[in-house]
């Protein structure tokens, strides 16, 4: 039995930033994914949810940043990002509309 029953357990949310919006022009989409998901699981999840063909998946673990609030300090949560390259001609409409 797999750790992930549903593909939506792997893909948490899309990343909407200036850099990720520029990557969309090159048919690359950025998502926050579950920290224990591997590249093949991410590929299958994106293909199942958005009905597109994935050609490449790059992942990066982002460490939490140090933040202060008054006298106390803490860290933002660490996360894992996936940059997914789609086959030419495929688009993800949900991300395009934001």
Number of helices: 3
Low-confidence stretches: none
- How far is the N terminus from the C terminus? 35 Å
Q: Biggest sheet: strands side by side, in what order?
A: 1-2-6-3
CA radius of gyration is 15 Å
- Assign an overall shape: globular
State the total count of DSSP E strands: 6
Q: Considering DSSP H and I runs of 4 or more, what fraction of the residues is helical?
A: 10-25%
**Helix-strand topology string:** EHEHEEEEH
The structure class reads: alpha+beta
Strand content: 35-45%
Largest sheet: 4 strands, antiparallel
Mean pLDDT comes to 91
State the gist of this model.
This protein has 3 helices and 6 strands. It has 98 residues and is of the alpha+beta class.
Describe it for me?
This protein has 98 residues and is of the alpha+beta class. The mean pLDDT is 91. The strands form 2 sheets. The chain has a 4-stranded antiparallel β-sheet, sandwiched between helices. The chain has a two-stranded antiparallel ribbon with strand order 4-5. Helices cover 23% and strands 36% of the residues.
